[in-house]
Amino acid sequence: MPIQRNNILKSIYKWRYKHISQKTFIYILSVIVGLLAGLASVTLKNITYFIEASLEKGIIFSSNQLYFILPIIGLTLVYLYVKYIHKEKLKHAVSSILFSLSRNKANIDAKQMYTQLIIAPLTVGFGGSVGLLGPAVATGAALSSNLGKLFHINSKTRSLLIACASAGAISSIFQSPIAAIIFAVEVFSLDLTMISMLPLLLASISGVLTSYFFMGNENLFNFTITEPFEVKDTLFYILLGVGTAVASIYFTKMYFGIINLFKPLKSPKYRLLVGGLAIGIMLYTIPPLYGEGFSFINDLLIGDHIKALGKTPFDAYIGNIWVVIALLIGITIFKAVAMTTTLAAGGAGGIFIPTMVMGSALGNVVAKLINNSGLGFSVSESNFTLIGMAGLIAGVQHAPLTAIFLIAEITGGYALFVPLMITASISYIITKNTVDYTIYTRELAESGDLLTHNKDHAVLTIMNIDMVIETNFKIVHPDMTLGEMLHDSVAKSTRNIFPVVDVNHMFLGIILLDDIREFMFDTKLYNTTKVETFTHKAPDHIYYGLDSMQIVMQKFQDSGAWNLPVVKNGKYMGFVSKSKLLTAYRRELIKFTK
């Protein structure tokens, strides 16, 4: 059977190389990738909705008290799947994709093609306060990566196909093809050229058509703008921009704070139990934190905050607008807590949609505060709800253009384009100047694994120390005599630098040919002078597995050296020369910009 399969694939390869150009083939693959990502998105949504509907209609979900139980059940099912079937630690969907682009040549494990389709619906369907966009993007990325490997596509083109998959997934979920393309550019640091534009466009169209085919004209947000932007409200939109910036900073810091809080709990079972109970308590008090939260956003958009808040312990006071405002503030604060707790407890999901939920609550709160301030001001609560979402997306994701075009597309027009730009840009500027990296990128940036739009930085990120390390240096020992060194090392070496190591191969220092040149022909010193006499410290060290290529380049610049030793746990590994480093850099830069 494998032989027959290989023969079929060989026939396909031959036919393709003979009849289809590389450019045309990429266009075809981008359409297929968009279709697959769209199918993954639809599948994720349908499985999740089925679980939620089954729980809502069944006996299990008969009262709020069972909010305590459901998250623990969902997290337990995810834990069992990961432990006995997946057998690998779960990683954040988008962060793992960014890592594969920078360090793994756009190779993604085949298991990721179906893992998120199982664990994400279990997490969200049973009450986990996370989104499905991240899992949809991860599934589409894995499908595109493995499809690219199947057809022997190079790593750079596979990276483009992964970006196409993300565009297809977003386009399918939100039915917003333009925002989907912009997301791929902003989040995956893709260079938007005509070479990449057309595949992204084709994938985005393919994704949205898949959504229309399977879901019809059903929109996530059934809302049409009826109140246009008024210039007199500009100050309030600036205020909302500042508010969403503060909320974005809070969201990011809370995420890493809770993740660090769970780190002492080494056992996944303890994390599951603590996290599940914490989520249950939050859901009992604030029911809209359950699941993704699209119904909450829709209820706010149509002005029905009573339905949006659902049944809470504070129902007796819900007629007081200030109680409503307080509950909405609670959602704004605790959505980030509930989302991060779900992920820290072992759940699977994304942060994009929780960001939107938090933004919608904050925008609605700001509008209600303005309208009930007693100062005679009146603004559109639905418009502020929408623009609050854009402000949080721009701040948390560092993706202002995605935020602007996404909200513009899902509302069916550009009537709010000006306030969207005001709020999103202010939120982005303040957040970016306060928090350098997003939830997706912080850990990657700290480890030097983050690709950016800066070509120099991106090329250095793609490179690794194994590409430039040289090992053809003759080592010497400190107790060797000068004569032994000249006979065993200098005479047999083509290099002018000699690493000094002990019997355990621990790096002690270096000797340059210039250090011994004046003594080389003094035979009286051959047996009386030891190597340790000439040994001195290297200008700097490169730490294998710890130093990124950016750090390596900086060390060469600061030290002024032409060769630097590479050590690992104190042991000598080799040398990196500045000339080889620059040659490798230029070669990768040419590849990167083709």
UniProtKB/TrEMBL annotation:
Localization in the cell: Membrane
Topological type in the membrane: Multi-pass membrane protein
Major localization class: membrane
InterPro entries: CBS_dom, CBS_dom_sf, Cl-channel_core, ClC, ClC-type_chloride_channel
GO MF annotations in UniProt: chloride channel activity
Membrane-crossing residue ranges in chain numbering: 24-44, 64-82, 117-140, 160-185, 197-215, 235-258, 270-290, 317-337, 344-366, 386-407, 414-431
Domain CBS per the UniProt entry, residue ranges: 469-520
Cellular component, GO annotation: chloride channel complex
Alphabetized UniProt keyword annotations: Chloride, Chloride channel, Ion channel, Ion transport, Membrane, Transmembrane, Transmembrane helix, Transport
Name of the protein in question: Chloride channel protein, CIC family
UniProt organism field: Maribacter aquivivus
